[in-house]
């Protein structure tokens, strides 16, 4: 029996992330990992392209979902690691101030891309759908092949302009987080979390680490943390320090959460269930 697009892409993503984790573990440094990751992701993109060329899409909604969600979530990793490799290989010598300027320059480039596509960025991040057919379906008059700045010769069967922009937006957010982390490292201590957060408690997180990431993303998605511009990385770092639990790469862990087939939020649902049970018990006891 032939695989559906969802089944195929879910399996491909799981295999890709597993191989990227292995690559990271066996790499000597960030530069080497980024270089290896680029080659790994290229192979998976080729596999994904072949599946789409061979099978096509069941309908317009499947095509839209592919170019709006599925491919950007994979292609962003290619762009991200390619850019990290460039950033790392271009690191200047000469001390902290030169490094600081290097990272700030790349941060500015990411910001300029967001500004250049601010209307689409707002559309994409707001969850709007009214322009999806124009943005995420392949135009019939598109040339058969053309050159991309990131991936050489591109086949129109595997590309939409705004799907590519969506990939760059998602990669840009990851690059932004990487650059901010590097800036924090070289400009410490003024950017590290305040000492009271680090020393106020000796509490430790007893649930799996992925549950803490699940909670971090839930707080971020709900806008429950002030100021509203607080990014998910900051929320996760704060909880990580508070509970003395290093989290590692929260983006990879989030991808694993998102790709769960049945229940994507077991920890959050367990929290609700346990709290309701406690309140029910307390109600009985109070009578």
CA radius of gyration is: 21 Å
Distance between the termini: 59 Å
- Share in helix: 55-70%
Roughly what is the average pLDDT, rounded to an integer?
A: 84
Q: Provide the low-confidence segments as ranges.
A: 189-200
Q: Helix count, per DSSP?
A: 12
User: What spatial order of strands do you see in the largest sheet?
Assistant: 1-2
**Which structural category do the helix and sheet elements fall into?**
mainly alpha
Characterize the main sheet.
2 strands, antiparallel
Keywords, please?
globular, mainly alpha, 287 residues, two-stranded antiparallel sheet, 70% helix
Write the layout of secondary structure elements.
Blueprint: H1 5-26, H2 30-55, H3 60-89, H4 96-116, H5 118-126, H6 132-136, E1 145-148, E2 152-155, H7 161-187, H8 195-199, H9 209-222, H10 232-242, H11 250-258, H12 266-286
Antiparallel strand pairs: 1-2
Give a brief outline of the structure.
The protein is mostly helical and 287 residues long. It has helices at residues 5-26, 30-55, 60-89, 96-116, 118-126, 132-136, 161-187, 195-199, 209-222, 232-242, 250-258, 266-286; strands spanning 145-148, 152-155. Residues 189-200 have low confidence and may be disordered.
């Amino acid at each position: 029996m032939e695989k559906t697009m969802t089944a195929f892409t879910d399996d491909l993503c799981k295999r890709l992330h597993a191989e990227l984790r292995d690559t990271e573990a066996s790499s000597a440094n960030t530069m080497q990992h980024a270089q290896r990751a680029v080659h790994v992701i290229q192979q998976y993109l080729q596999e994904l392209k072949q599946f789409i060329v061979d099978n096509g899409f069941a309908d317009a909604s499947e095509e839209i979902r592919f170019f709006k969600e599925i491919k950007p979530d994979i292609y962003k990793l290619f762009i991200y690691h390619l850019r990290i490799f460039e950033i790392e290989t271009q690191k200047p010598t000469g001390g902290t101030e030169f490094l600081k300027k290097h990272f700030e320059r790349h941060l500015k480039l990411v910001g300029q891309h967001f500004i250049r596509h601010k209307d689409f960025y707002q559309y994409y991040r707001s969850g709007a759908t009214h322009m999806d057919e124009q943005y995420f379906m392949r135009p019939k008059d598109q040339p058969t092949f053309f050159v991309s700045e990131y991936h050489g010769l591109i086949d129109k069967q595997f590309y939409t302009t705004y799907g590519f922009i969506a990939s760059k937006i998602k990669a840009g957010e990851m690059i932004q987080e990487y650059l901010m982390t590097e800036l924090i490292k070289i400009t410490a201590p003024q950017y590290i979390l305040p000492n009271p957060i680090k020393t106020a408690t000796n509490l430790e997180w007893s649930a799996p680490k992925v549950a803490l990431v699940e909670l971090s993303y839930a707080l971020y998605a709900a806008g429950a943390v002030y100021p509203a511009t607080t990014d998910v990385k900051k929320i996760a770092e704060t909880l990580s320090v508070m509970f003395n639990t290093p989290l590692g790469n929260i983006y990879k862990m989030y991808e694993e959460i998102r790709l769960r087939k049945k229940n994507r939020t077991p920890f959050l649902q367990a929290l609700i269930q346990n709290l309701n049970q406690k309140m029910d018990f307390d109600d009985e006891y109070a009578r």
